[in-house]
Amino acid sequence: MARSRSLWLSSCLLLACSDSGKDEGEATSLADEAGSASESGDTGNDTGDTGTGDTGEALRPNWHQDVAPLVTANCQGCHSEGGIAPFTMQTYEQTSPWASVMADDAELGIMPPWHALETDVCQPPLGFKHDARLDPEAITMLRDWADLGAPEGDPDLAAPLPEPQQLDLANPTTTVTMGSSVAVDVVGSTRDFFHCISLDPGNAQDVYLDGLQVVPGNRAVVHHVLVYVDEGAQSASWPGGVQQNCGGGSGVASAQLIAGWVPGGLPMEPPPGVGISLPAGARLVLNVHYHATGGGPETDESTGMALRWTNEVPEYVSLFELVGAPGVGDSLTGPLQIPAGASDHVEEFEWVVSAGGQPFPDTIEARLWAVANHMHKVGVDMRVWVEDRDDGHETCLLHTPKWDFNWQRVYEYDSSIDQDVRLRAGDILHVKCVYDNTLANAALAEALAEVGENAPVDVSMGEGTLDEMCLAGVGVGVKGLP
After folding, report:
1. SS (H, E, C) the chain
2. Residue 305 sits in the same domain as residue 453
3. Are residues 179 and 282 in the same domain?
């Protein structure tokens, strides 16, 4: 399983807590309603400003004693001043107007966002890191708080607050940014641009990454980013370190895809003992998908990466593979084509685990530590599982039955690498995607409206938002490479 097979996820990475699932217009409207209610004196809190019952004691649950610690730990990573969510939830005044919405979304499993679900057809063998789901007691508490009218309680009785979730890579070795700027604006009917940016990480010797994070510059137009290793540093010759209109790849032959990012993406951190190879003198190439807003010209001049590395050779070297369309594997349903008006349309792929099409000996230990699903706006349901080569036993790796293009992430198993799912040459990795190409699919209707369309169109494989993919990205730690 040579290094040249190292690949990563196309058009995605994940996210734990931002609120991009609601557009800013919706959030502003709800906030305005809450503000109007407050000004009129009708906040929905029947207990009054004190939040006390007939006995004079603070009603429970209340903000200071119960809800604030929960919100701090689970929401403020994004819902904070300068965060990626469209409104803040750092004080009682900012949060209480949202009490009923918070309870509704928690009960529906919409917030905090988490899409790797246990279902009748999928029971993953291990839990995932950063599982954002609230436990039943917390969900009940939010409902009770809303039903009581969101009482504030007594600040003198306030419970200690935990640290908010940190979305930045801890202790980076270095941070590098682009050397020149790019301009983004609607050109004719074109809203999507793919520009490649070359970065010099500055490592004078071979290192192994155990943490990396894309740092987007202009968040208004940076749609997603793919990260490649340019081992021969060919991209160093690009004027200003930028190759414009480089398509969906790296712009460099034989570059290795190692990571990706979408808004709100968490840092990528392999398990202890696992590292991503970054040879001395190599460059990093960022393929940045810019999506013009239509609101006028925009400029990006500060997109870059935070990197954390070690000089020690890890026990496992992390390799990556893309399975499905447009990745490796065979289609069981023919070329990816989703007719206009089709609902419950299925595309399915399978890949016989190998290294460049060749089997590898069982003396090589290969453990799958991360998995991610990726479709576009027509997708509604996706599942990935592995079939044992000997007895046909199936192990479900990931199921996202409520697919949401706005909430993509890499799901990393919460275990040590030697406990992760083992892959052997000859095992079969299955990928199944379900699509809804009708206006009943709200995400598709929104995407069509953005380009001035009001009816579904035939969809095939491609890079654009109104094209489709069916891709599973798998991160595998490998021990015993020659």
Report:
1. CCHHHCCCCCCCCCECCCCCCCCHHHHHHHHHHHHHHHHHCCCCCCCCCCCECCCCCECCCCHHHHHHHHHHHHCCCCCCCCCCCCCCCCCHHHHHHHHHHHHHHHHHCCCCCCCCCCECCECCCCCECCCCCCCHHHHHHHHHHHHCCCCCCCHHHCCCCCCCCCCCCCCCCEEEECCCCEEECCECCECEEEEEEEECCCCCCCEEEEEEEEECCCCCCEEEEEEEEECCCHHHHCHHHEECCCCCCCCCCCCEEEEEECCCECCECCCCCEEEEECCCCEEEEEEEEECCCCCCEEECCCEEEEEEECCCCCEEEEEEEEEECCECEECCCCCEECCCCCCEEEEEEEECCECCECCCCCCEEEEEEEEEECCCCEEEEEEEEECCCCCCEEEEEEECCCCCCCCCCEEECCCHHHCEECCCCCEEEEEEEECCCCCCHHHHHHHHHCCCCCCCCEEECCCCCCECEEEEEEEEEECCC
2. no
3. yes
CA 365 from centroid of its chain's CA atoms: 28
Question: Per the domain annotation, does 128 fall within a domain?
Answer: no
Give tens-digit pLDDT for 52-104: 665 557 799 999 999 999 999 988 877 888 666 778 999 999 999 999 999 99
Q: Which two tokens stand for residue 364?
A: 């090589």
pTM score above 0.85: no
Report if residue 426 sits inside a domain.
Answer: yes
CATH number for 428: 2.60.120.230
Could you tell me if 137 and 186 lie in one domain?
no
**CA neighbor of 404 nearest in space, from 107, 108, 34, 143:** 108
Do 148 and 172 belong to one domain?
A: no
Low-confidence spans in the chain with pLDDT less than 70 = 1-56, 82-84, 262-264
CB burial readout 143-169, b (16+ within 10 A) else e: bebbebbbbbbbeeeeeeeeebbebeb
